[in-house]
Amino acid sequence: MDRRVFxxxxxxxxxxLSLQLDSSRGERFRGAVLCPACGLLHxxxxxxxxxLTLLWRLTGKEKYLRGAEAAVDFAExxxxxxETGLYRNDFASAWYGISVFGYMALSDARRxxxxxxxxxxxxxxxxxxxxxxxxxxxxxNKPSFKPNVNYFAGGAAVMARAWKxxxxxxxxxxxxxxxxxTLSYVTPDGMLSGEGYHAVRRRSPRGFVPVDxxxxxxxxxxxxxxxxxxxxxEELFKEAEKLMNGLLPFLLPDGGxxxxxxxxxxxxxxxxxxxxxxxxxxxxxxxxxxxWREAAARTFSLYEKxxxxxxxxxxxxxxxAGVPVCVHHTFxxxxxxAHMLESGLDFAPTGAALPSEEFRGVREYPSAxxxxxxxxxxxxxxxxxxxxQDPRLSPRGGSMTLLWHAKCGPILAATxxxxxxxEPQNMQLLPHxxxxxxxxxxxxxxxxxxxxxxxxxxxxxxxxxxFSVRGFLTSIGGGILTLPDEAxxxxxxxxxxxxxxxxxxxxxxxxxVYHLPVIAGRGDxxxxxxxxxxxxxxxCRILLTSDxxxxxxxxxxxxxxxxxxxxxxxxxxxxxxxxxxxxxxIRVE
Length: 589
Hints:
This protein has helices spanning 3-19, 49-59, 62-78, 99-113, 119-139, 149-166, 169-183, 213-231, 234-247, 280-283, 290-305, 318-321, 328-343, 355-358; strands spanning 80-81, 86-87, 268-269, 272-273, 307-308, 311-312, 361-365, 370-375, 378-383, 400-405, 409-413, 442-445, 448-449, 457-460, 466-472, 490-497, 502-508, 512-519, 525-529, 532-537, 540-546, 560-562, 567-576, 582-588. Strand 22 (560-562) and strand 23 form a beta hairpin. The protein has 2 domains: 7-355, Glycosyltransferase, CATH 1.50.10.10; 359-588, Beta-galactosidase, Chain A, domain 5 (Distorted Sandwich), CATH 2.70.98. The model has no long low-confidence stretch (mean pLDDT 96). Helix 2 (49-59) runs antiparallel to helix 3. It is an alpha+beta fold and 589 residues long. It has 14 helices and 24 strands. The protein is 32% helix and 20% strand.
């Protein structure tokens, strides 16, 4: 058993228990957890049953089992939908797809507790599992159920586990059916598509498919591995292995996962996604692979760094911003720590290089419209897709969605075009009245911008890390800016990557500004003078120069926080005279 993993899980469980309500507030709320950030009771807190039960088994401390039992009792008292027997997401949402995760957590807890569980607890949990498996078998197969692909993967895992424990042949058949359905969404370039709210295959007008790396890494692929294990299906295991190997280039050297461009990036955290379970549930499946073990070690180290007051934060800068941490990340990702512990593996670094450290040049994923760039110590992603579920959520216009450097980590990171709680109970609102500012680098002319453009042209110079985007300045509603001479306002953005420098050239037919939100903490030193800005961080300096004068509209000491990615930033902008090109250079020393 890895002691570091045990220590972190113990810290998370202790904090969870400190937030768990007792019956003094009414029996109905006993076992609920009051979120210190959101001020509400998250409906899926019963997912913590597995980590708590495992900790009880390992330590013998009854408080962990009592907490696990209370968490399940809260869900049973408040989240069960009588007509289906399944769980709803929370008090304000009737979405029942999350029952697959509740089933897997309770099933893992039942296995972890084994014969040591009190007979009445074991019987109660067994009955709940039988009810959930029966409901999932029926309800998730209805045409009216229109899920993202992670629910097909989750359904396959549930049915495989139900077949293993209940021995009903129909569950075996449904497990294979849903596993095959999940794999049918794998694209020729190895991406798992289908993260786009649909029951049928969906593409953007220009033919791109919806992909969300956070959910694929932290839910769909781990659940496919679980199904393969319970079914003893070697071919399914190999397919899940291929998906994980294809995803690993997006894992950055510091353990962060580049999901800045994903179809559900509104719930992006620096390690994956807000309401999913964790990548280690997949990475433990190949204990002899040093790269997978190293990837698990890097991500785990990131969990340690991002733990604040016993809770897992969504990004590295909650404390810097003075923003409280939501408990949701903790009770979902604690499950992956429990899987790590039960694996019996040692998660010390192996010294193996990750794919993001080894490759140089450009990797293209044409199905999703994603390019990964590696030049010197820079890593970046660009998004050439026009896919979006909501124009407020995804940056288009060929945006650079992430710029990262080995010395200082993330420098630029895209966020939704407009931050709003698309999932009100699953997204954090900030405790102050200031608006959440968009962090995507972009051209703006009033309400018009390149990031709203869906008809842009995107090109890459052959065999070169040089990218060009052209299009029309567009509003979030799809209107195109018209100039006084009745011509449409064009824009152009070109980005060139060198080993020591990233150079961005921007141009607009309309007078506007180029926004450049640079990730920076309150303690980072900023020097701004004319066409030069320097952001001094611990161990590095980011140097930005331009052929125009930078402005800091909120001052050089002001920082703004965005919950997506969890970053504070310094807002820089560069005025753009109509028809004149401006160039920005970014270097790190």
